[in-house]
Amino acid sequence: MNGFILGVDGGGTKTVWALTHSTGRILIRREGRSANFQILGEEGLRDVLAEEGFQTLREAGVSPEDVAVAFLGLAGVGRERDRVQVAQMAAQIGLARGVLVDSDARIALAGAFAGEPGIILIAGTGSICYGINEEGEMARSGGWGYLLGDEGSGYFLGQQALIAALKDFDGRGQKTELRPVLEEKFGVENISLIIPAVYSGKISREAIAGLAPLVFDTADRGDAVAREILQRAGLALAGLTRAVAVRLGLTGKLIRLALIGGLFSRKRWFIGPIREELGALSPGVEIVKPQLEPVLGAVLLALQACHITLTKDILRNLSRSS
């Protein structure tokens, strides 16, 4: 192959860029603004890709003509129609000689298992489960966004904490330490005063997801309501994983699962339900650490698209970079 590879991990909170040589040696890795297609729209995404993409190339001293393939793994492109639309737009920008587009979950899966079969469960701002089996069949569950899904995500935890605090305020729900914690967080006399800010968008989706650490901390102090929210989140994440394992035909077979996302820094709240749900399907369940970060999964998929065999040396170079 003649040229470099540009991998892009465009999530709901930030975008990670990695420019590598065909040997897997990384030239530059940098972070920039969010690149969620459903939130930004085509014009907003075009701006992010153009500004951040060309900045990445400039910092590496590489011209777009020298980039063989740019693989964009983006949030919000779960439908084929969206991927085609974004690929056409990205090709017009001219970041590389060739452009490929798939979901951010797809590149996370490729990175987690270095291109091998397995299942990833992502729980950050949003949530999704995605997997591939030995036959190359793929399946997903969840990932429908904060209005229609994202159960067990950071947004789910923050939303449920706000609901619990409001029910406490109304007198129709259990008393919870979440209420004074959230009132202090937002600097209000009572929790009902945040309602206009929520519905006007001044308190954003990301800000609500950012309340997740408060839920964990309150649960750690023994609050029953916060603990119940985390228990429901664990069951939801376990359900996502089971659905994918069943669709991939892994009942009775080895199930390899990688946990990805900020919520799993406190994974003790979720491991039990996940193991129980998967253990009912198969006696062989392995929960493993992701081998490579998602942006390098994008690089792997780009290399494969260029018909480059993923040798031990390439994987070693990417591992060092990661």
Question: What can you tell me about this protein's structure?
Answer:
The chain is an alpha/beta fold and 322 residues long. The longest helix has 24 residues, at 37-60. A five-stranded mixed β-sheet has the order 3-2-1-4-5, with helices on both faces. A five-stranded mixed β-sheet has the order 8-7-6-9-10, sandwiched between helices. It has helices at residues 37-60, 80-93, 104-112, 145-148, 154-170, 178-186, 195-200, 205-209, 212-220, 224-247, 268-279, 294-305, 312-321; strands at 4-10, 15-20, 26-32, 67-74, 98-103, 118-123, 127-132, 138-142, 255-260, 285-288. Helix 1 (37-60) runs parallel beside helix 2 and helix 9 crosses helix 10. It folds into two domains: 4-113 and 292-321, ATPase, nucleotide binding domain (Nucleotidyltransferase, domain 5); 115-290, ATPase, nucleotide binding domain (Nucleotidyltransferase, domain 5), CATH 3.30.420. It contains 13 helices and ten strands.
